[in-house]
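Section: Multi-chain targets

For targets with more than one molecule, the full set of components is provided together so that the structure can be written out for the assembly as a whole rather than chain by chain. Components appear in the order listed by the source. The example entry contains two components.
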Amino acid sequence: MQPSRPLTELTEAVIAGEKARAVALVNEGLRRGEEPMALFDALAEGIAVVGERYQAGEYFIPDLVLGANAMRAGAALISGEIAGRQSVRHTLGKLVLGTVKTDLHDIGKNLVALLFQVGGFEVVDLGVDVPAERFVEAVRAERPDVLGLSTLLTVGMQRQAETLRALSQAGLREGVIVLVGGAPLNQRSADDIGADGYASNAVAAVALAKRLLSSGKVDTRQQ
Amino acid sequence: MGAAPLWKILSEEQAEQIHERALSLLAHTGIVFQSEDVVRRFADAGADVDRGRQLVKLPPKLVQDLLSTVPRRFLLGGRTPAFNVEVSADRTVCRPIVGCTYVIDSQTGARREVTTADAEAIARLLDALPTFAFSGAVAYPADEPPLTRDVYYLSLLLANGQKHPIVSPYGAKNIEYMHRLGVVLAGGGEEHGRRPRFHILTAPTSPLQYSATQTAMIVKAAELLIPNQVSSTPMTGATSPVTLAGQTLLLHAENLAGIALTQLVRPGCPVYYAARPNVMDLRTGNSLWGAIEWGLTGAACLQLARQAHLICDCFGCVTDSKVMDEQAAIEKTMNATLVALAGANVVSGGGFLETINTTSPEQLVIDDEIQGMLGRVSRGIAVDEERLAEALIDRVGHGGHYLGEEHTRRPSRQEHYLPKTPDRDLWDVWREKGGKDIVQRARERADDLLRAEAPDPLPEETRRELDRILAAARADITV
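Its structure, encoded as tokens over all components, is:
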């Protein structure tokens, strides 16, 4: 086995957000008999650098999105090969999230999904206009560590409360950390509806989730 | 204020090009209205529709025909005729922000949630601040549950304010109850149609879709002849192209489609165009409401609206600053000046801080001053015999003065804007008067205005009728 191009080039493709190049390099690597896990690690290293540069203020949101797209496209080609191993090695936890019923706003929600992915979480995005029952079904099926409920609308707070009630009725409330977010919300409204946490932006949401997961489910007001 | 543009950001060719592209986008890419009924109506009118996707492709001719029935002026009714306001494509008026969640407490300086008492005080303050031609649902009180907060707020505005308010409603059913409130004040449905006592704003969810809720609200307002401000709010790099030209194109197309729907439902119903060119902070993804691009893109959209003979509202006094500081002053003044010079028919947004999350009475007073100065700017410099005063200059001659001239006394109040809150004293005098900054002086002015006599309360029976409608809304709107 003699790889014509080093794995560092794959890492660089992710850092540069070049999806086509990442896909070509993964295909080429597989053809030449490269170990799939080594390819995955090269992709993961790339997205870690993207995350660091974003935190350092060198990268902007589009760099983050393009980097994540390159990584996802590359990982999709080898996911079969490394099934089972990836979640053990690279997942901090699982997030299910969506924008609540009647609300179509998804930018904030997408940003949260992205930063959770970059931060090492497995993410299941239910999309927008998600009724309480769909959240309940997804929590039952996916068994996430964290559930994220997003809204931009004042009435969306009501939908978040309904979803929390539906989770309790289904007996699923205790098993999941519920985070809420969106412009009309604040810590008090999150407390009022019985969420486990509120974050005002995507970066803070990831930090909060990590903190709650590491300390067990706690009342965020005491943090 | 007159609305003749003193400044244009686009050439005629550029403006025509963007308008043509908007029509082409609506014809080829189309726009989603999440309503079977609306999709069917557009199909009946000749649009190419995809019922499964609720996608409507509008032929340019259809859009043009629908836009041709939009009124170029309409009346907004106040408590008394003295508070009526005409909104038209030929003039500029100002109105405050709608939809803040917090208020800065004048006593403590802390940001906190809005109470009913705050909302009532702000309504009275707006009555007294001269540049706000009409009023609005500035800060929604948190002591009313969310589902009917809009209806509750309108009842407060009608009971405590005399100026006509604009409100952001939560749904079509809420609009029906709001309309019932307005009809009580107007003394009948027909009278309300002629002189509506409130109006609303609606918005697409960019890019290129109107949600079920917003579509239903547009239809309901048109049916009830409630004026509607259609306000596309695409965010650069997120829900629109990152380029200002691309954002302008998308915003224009979305607004034209929403306005077209109003005319499809009820030709001639009052509607106007609002430019809300939102900016994403590329570093954080935060939605910015004070960036200088607001004024630029706002002026471009305004030019397109004017070209399409539509009344246009632009945000003026915008800011992302959390406090009443120099950042707030810079962002507000820069952006408001750009859209005022471009001839916006409604300059809106006065009174907010922190990316439309927060308001304060002091900021409303300060923004009233900015708007007052802009009003003076818009009037320009009049040049005629009387104002040139050549004969006077000749008479006073060399080395004399103009202090005692009748000519000096007479036109001074028209020629010069006389602000209320900016300080103009010399240092020692300023110190003697307490050495206050503009925020302190604005607080005192707000307090003075609020201490003035309250307007006549509504008749007891009218109050009770509003309360009955509100109670019915609370019982009815539960999900």
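The mean pLDDT of chain B is 96.
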